[in-house]
Design a protein that fits this description.
Elements: H1 64-67, E1 72-79, E2 90-95, E3 104-111, H2 131-181, H3 186-289, H4 304-449
Antiparallel strand pairs: 1-3, 2-3
Helix pairs in contact: 2-4, 3-4
Length: 450
Amino acid sequence: MSSFKTCPESCSETCPKTCSDTCVKTCSETCSETCSFTFPKTCSDTCVKTCSETCPNPCSVSNPKSSFSSFSMTSKSIIGPRLCSTVAPKAYSVYGCGFGEKTRISTCSYRLNAGSPGGRFGARIMTGGCYDYLQKSEKATMQDLNDRLASYLDKVHFLEAANVTLEKQIREYYEKKGLICQRDYSCYFKTIDCLQEKIKEATVNNGKILLQIDNAKLAAEDFKIKHENEAMIRQCVKADVDNLRCILEKTCLAKADLETQNCALQEELVYLKKTHQENVAALLCQLTDKKVCVEVDAAPQQDLKKVLEDIRCHYETIIDKHCRKQERWFKEKMADLCKDAATNTECLETSISQISDLRRTLQSLEIELQSQISMKGALECSLLETEARYSTMLAGFQKHIDAYEAELCQVRSGIEQQGRDYAALLDIKSRLEQEIATYRCLLEKLDIKS
C-alpha cells in the first residue's frame, strides 16, 4: 500500500504523512482544487470544516461526518507503545516498520453527536437534494473502509510475520546464550580445587610452624628460667666458696701465727735451758771455789739442786702440757679445715662441672634458637610470597567474575528489553484485533442499516 493517499474526487492534494486516512491535510496547507480553505488541524483531520465556518466550495471527498447522522469519526496519531484513549470505542492502524520504538498508530473513535451549536464536526441531517450526495458519500466511505480494512489485515499479517521472526530471533538468542552459559568450566573448577587444597595445606603448615614457634618460645623461656636459677645457685656457691676461701686464709694465718709462736717458745725453751745450765754451772763453780764455814743457828735449808730440779720438772711439765695442748688443738683445727676444704673442693668441682654443663646447654640452646629464628624468618617470607601470589590469582579470578557478571547483566537487560518489545508488539496486535473487530461491528451495523 502506498504511503501517500489522494483525494478520490476533485481534491487532488496528497497527504504528506504515512497515515491511512483519506485526504488528510497538514497544518496551514490548502486543498488546491475545490476546497480553498486553510486547515489549522494536524495530519489526522479529514477534509472537513472546523467550528462554525462553512466551506465555500465543498470538496467531494469522502466525509465520514456526512455519512452518519449519529456518528463522527476522527483519527489520532500515536507514537510508541502508549495509546491515547478517546471517549467511544476505538480502532488502531499501524504504519512504519511494524516493530521497534517509533511505531505510529492512528486511532479512529466514534462519538455520538447531536449537532452542537458550534458546528465542530457536528452531524447535519441532510434532506432533499442532498440525498444522492449522501448515498455517494456512503459508497465512498464503504469503499474506503474496505480498503482500510484490507490494509489493516495486510499490516496484521505483516506484524504476525514480524512476531514470528522476532520469536525466532529471541529463540536463537536464548539458544546462543544458553550455549555460551553451558561452557565447560571443569578445568577452572579443578584449578580452583587444587588451589584451595594448596591454600589449606599452606594454612596447616603455617599452623604447624606457628605451633613449633610457640613451643620453641616456651622451651626457650623454660631454659631461660632454668639458666637464671642455675645462675643464682652459681652465685650462691661462688659466695660460699669466697667465704670458705676467706676462712681458709684466716686459718692459714692462724696456723702461721701458731707456728711462729711455737718456734719462739722452742727458742725460748732452749734459751732457758741454756741459761739454766749456765747458772747451775756458775753456782757450782762458786760453791766449789769458795768454802765458807758459817755456822748459823737456823733451820736446815733445802737442797738447791733438788729445788732446781723440781722447778725444772715443773716447768717442763707445764711446757709439755702446753705443747701437747697446742699441738692437739692445731691438729684438730687442721683436720677440720682439711675436711672443710675437701668438702668445699668437691662442691666447687661439682659446681664448676654443673656450670660448664649449663654453659654448653646454653650455647646449644642459643644455637637452636638462632636456627629457629632464621627458620621463622624464612617461613614468614615464604608465607608473604604465597599470600601475594594467591592474592594476585584471586584478583584475576575476581576480574573474570566481574566480567562474567557484567556480561550476565547485559544479557539480562537485553532479555528484558526483548521481553518489553515483545509485550509491546503483543499489545499492538491485540489492539489491532480490537480495531478489526470494531470495524467488523461497524460494517455489520452499516449492512443492517442499508
